[in-house]
Amino acid sequence: MDRGTKAKVKTKERHITIIIVPSAGGNSKALKIYYPKLIVSAMLCMILCGVLTAGVFARDLLQENHELRANNIELHEVNRAQLQIIKKNDQQIKDITDNNLLMKEKIQQLADLYEEIVQKYKGITEKYIVTAETQTLASRADGRSDKSFVSDLISLQSKIMEASSILALESSNDVLLDARLLLDRFAEALPDFVPLQGRISDRFGYREDPFWKIQRFHSGLDIAAPYGSEIRAAGAGKVVFAGRKGGYGNLVIIDHGYGITTYYGHASRLLVKEGQKVEKGEIIARVGSTGRSTGPHLHFEIRINDVPVDPLNYISLD
User: Fold this and answer.
1) Which residues, 6 or more positions from 257, have their beta carbon under 8 angstroms from its beta carbon?
2) What is the pLDDT of residue 80?
3) Cα–chain-centroid distance for residue 186?
4) C-beta atoms surrounding 148 within 10 Å
């Protein structure tokens, strides 16, 4: 009995007393809180605070995780777009590089062709068309004939066409265009057009003069044809003489430039006048027998720097 009483007293003593005194006076109150109850309350408070803290932390963590996922999706889309841009840029760089290589190749081909054109054009002009100061016939150099001048010109035209086709999809090269125009004008001026269809009655060179019956130099080509037949310009140029001149009778002289002139003699009628520009193949006169002539025919001469050359080296009569 005594042991039980002691235990009960000891248990009752495990408390703390909190005295509450009102500020306005009045009776004070004493509040007893036993230790076991305090511990339990503290533990409950701690658990509650932990739960609340964990809830707040979990909420913040979930929010942050949601934001991170959204950011990750956005970054993934940005990264995918950037990869597409990089891939596109890589292709563009490749295309530009390929185009640059192709352009360099085309430019090199053009440069080689142009150099060949320039050098060859320079060569044939030095051989066939000389300056007025030299007054010599360059076409006789290196044993080459005047006829090869025509084939050289055709070769040049072919090379220019080849060069033009290389740049079919590119802008025209000014230097090449200038060379093309120059050669086109030269081709038009070259007296390679047959001025009259007929029979060759006398050739270029020494022959027996029909009036004097002695060997004399014949400076042109005689082409017999019916009276009044059309005489055409062998090349484009400017008429520098149209009238009567000694043994030539009615004569037309055309200056083609480049030191080249052509003579058309014994005409019955002149259809051009001095100073007039004519095109290759244009009708300039009609066949006659004026001057020192034994019948209707054309006396045709080609002169380079006023030196007569054989017309059959430039024209071909079937």
Assistant:
1) 185, 189, 237
2) 83
3) 25
4) 15
Do the Cβ atoms of 285 and 231 come closer than 8 Å?
Answer: yes
Q: Which of 212, 182, 205 is nearest to 121 (CA)?
A: 182
At residue 24, what are phi and psi to the nearest 5 degrees?
-90, 15
Taking the alpha carbons at both ends of the chain, their separation in whole angstroms is 164
- Distance (Å, rounded) from C-alpha 14 to C-alpha 23? 29
Report the range of poorest mean pLDDT among 2-11, 21-30, 118-127.
2-11
Cα–Cα distance between 227 and 215 in angstroms, integer? 28
pLDDT, one tens digit per residue, over 269-289 is 999 999 999 999 999 999 999
| Tokens found for residue 222 | 């005689």
Q: How far, rounded to the nearest angstrom, does the alpha carbon of residue 5 sit from its chain's CA centroid? A: 120
| Domains of the chain, earliest start first | 110-189 (no CATH), 199-313 (2.70.70.10)
- The rounded distance, in Å, linking the Cα atoms of 277 and 239 is 6
- What's the CA gap between 298 and 315, in Å, rounded? 14
Distance CA 285, CA 271 (A): 5
Band of residue 8 on the pLDDT scale cut at 50, 70, 90 = very low
pLDDT tens digit string along 187-198? 888 898 999 999
- CA proximity to 32, closest of 12, 18, 42: 18
**Model pTM?**
0.58
- Of the candidates 213, 208, 297, the one whose C-alpha atom is nearest the C-alpha of residue 250 is 297
User: What is the percent of the chain with per-residue pLDDT over 90, rounded to a whole number?
Assistant: 28
- Between residues 218 and 208, which one has the greater pLDDT? 218
Region 119-130: mean pLDDT is: 64
The residue assigned the tokens 């230790």 is 35
Report residue 14 as tokens: 């495990």
CA proximity to 288, closest of 228, 234, 210: 228
